[in-house]
Amino acid sequence: MNSLRIGKFKGFTTFDLKIIGIILMFIDHIHQMFVPMGAPNWLDWFGRPVATLFFFVSVVGFSHTRSKEKYMLRLYIGMVLMALGSFFIQMIVGYEEVQLMNNIFRDLTVGTLMMYGIDKISEGRLNKNVGKIVAGIAMILFPILSSVILLSFMSNPDTVMAAVWGANFIPSLVFTENNFMVLLIPLMYLARNSRWLQCALIALVAAFFFTQGSTQWMMLFAVIPILLFNGEKGRGMKNFFYYFYPLHIWLLYLVSAYIAMH
Predict the structure, then answer these.
(1) Where are the transmembrane segments (predicted)?
(2) What is the pLDDT of residues 181-192, one digit of tens each?
(3) d(Cα 248, Cα 226) in Å, to the nearest integer?
(4) What is the CA 113 to chain-centroid distance, rounded?
(5) Beta strand 8-9 with 4-5: parallel, antiparallel or unpaired?
(6) 87 touches 165 (CB < 8 A)
(7) 238 and 248 Cβ atoms separated by less than 8 Å
(8) How far apart, in whole angstroms, are the C-alpha atoms of residue 182 and residue 109?
(9) What is the rounded distance in angstroms from the CA atom of residue 168 to the CA atom of residue 80?
(10) Quick one: which H or E segment has residue 235?
(11) 141: Cα within 13 Å, side-chain hemisphere
(12) Which long-range contacts (CB under 8 A, 24 or more apart) does 19-24 make?
């Protein structure tokens, strides 16, 4: 890794955090795709800190990107392509034992939309621009209101398919992979100048899951690499994740389907 030196550890870069997340995510998805073949449940534990790591990385990336609009657009395109790709692959293969519900791009799109809203509110307050404040509030509320609208459409048999397809194109909080846990993104963005506060927020959410008896409490382990983050970007390869994420999921799904059908 870029931040590692022989005999001296200088902390993790953003690139290092992404690599850690990718490795843990890959193990988790092996469990997801091969459950029908008896993959052990403990493999799932490796994936519990992953979303939190990527949430933190998105906060860092959004804070330093030259164009926040382009950053958001890349995630949105990834969200749509991931949803459509998974739909058509499942339709063609017809392997129903495993469902392709994964789409971290949706989580990150919702999170960046809320972070962008926070920025607009800050700009509006600084410049005493009521319009920007209102626009910022609207951006923050949009994923919540769109969730309410889509859920109401889903409750009606005549509009349920329109809602399902709409969720592929409309950023909605309740249709994210991690649901309300995505709110950690804007919260960590508000606390971006205090690493300890960010970790405290993660610990609080982890404690909630612990009380619910969910293994998601293991997200707490994301705090370790986050505290060791040195604030440096590290190596490039910014587009690697955009390709690796959908391709590894689809490949594992196809391998699982092939084994199950032969």
Answers:
(1) 12-34, 46-63, 75-94, 130-153, 165-189, 201-228, 240-261
(2) 999 999 999 999
(3) 25
(4) 13
(5) antiparallel
(6) no
(7) no
(8) 10
(9) 6
(10) none
(11) 9
(12) 20/53, 20/225, 21/50, 21/53, 21/54, 21/57, 22/241, 22/244, 24/49, 24/50, 24/53
* 61-103 pLDDT tens trace: 999 998 999 999 999 999 999 999 999 999 999 999 999 999 9
The mean per-residue pLDDT over the stretch 213-233 comes to 96
Q: Quick one: which of 43, 55, 27, 11 has its CA closest to 224?
A: 11
pTM value > 0.85: yes
- DSSP line for 194-230: -HHHHHHHHHHHHHHHHHTT-GGGGGGGGHHHHHTB-
Q: In this structure, what is the dihedral angle of CA atoms 201, 104, 90, 252, given to the nearest 10 degrees?
A: -90
What is the percentage of the chain residues whose pLDDT exceeds 90?
A: 89
Instruction: Give the number of residues written for the chain.
Output: 262
C-beta separation of 85 from 246 below 8 A: yes
Beta bridge partners of 12: 229
Say yes or no to pLDDT of 5 above 50.
no
Question: Position of tokens 């997801």?
Answer: 32
Residue 128 has pLDDT above 60, yes or no: yes
Domain count of the fold of the chain? 1
Structure tokens at 161: 């398919």
Rounded to a whole number of angstroms, the distance between the first and last alpha carbons of the chain is 40
Q: Report the 10 Å Cβ neighbour count for 99.
A: 11
